[in-house]
Amino acid sequence: MMHIGEVAARTELSLRSLRHWEEVGLLRPSGRTDGGFRLYTEDDVEKILVIRRMKPLGFSLDAMRAVMDDIEVLRGQDADDAVRTAARARLREVAVEAEDRRTALARQLDMADEFLELLGRQTR
Q1: Following CA atoms 61, 67, 72, 75 in sequence, which dihedral angle do they give, to the nearest 10 degrees?
Q2: pLDDT confidence of 123, banded at 50, 70, 90?
Q3: What structural domains does the chain harbor?
Q4: By C-alpha distance, which of 20, 15, 13 is closest to 28?
């Protein structure tokens, strides 16, 4: 079990982000110390990294929460086949959307590179 500071350092996130994600129901630490300090597991860190990877793609908190719920369904043993099939289908849709968003970001980076090149030529 890890304290929030160690998790923040490992995931390159702020304490504030981790606390906020808990407040909005996106992520819950697996435990608490007797003093009330958050305790995280390796599984929690994996979940945090999924959220962190979605963030630059501009997914909303609700979309991130839905993805995390579907991942939990697939990792768990309690869901029946229909629920698991629906979760997989939703995650496939998110994967397509993530690819579209990544393509748009790559285009923006290409434009930024072109701009920097233009500025470089102008300042020589």
Answers
A1: -150
A2: confident
A3: 2-122 (1.10.1660.10)
A4: 20
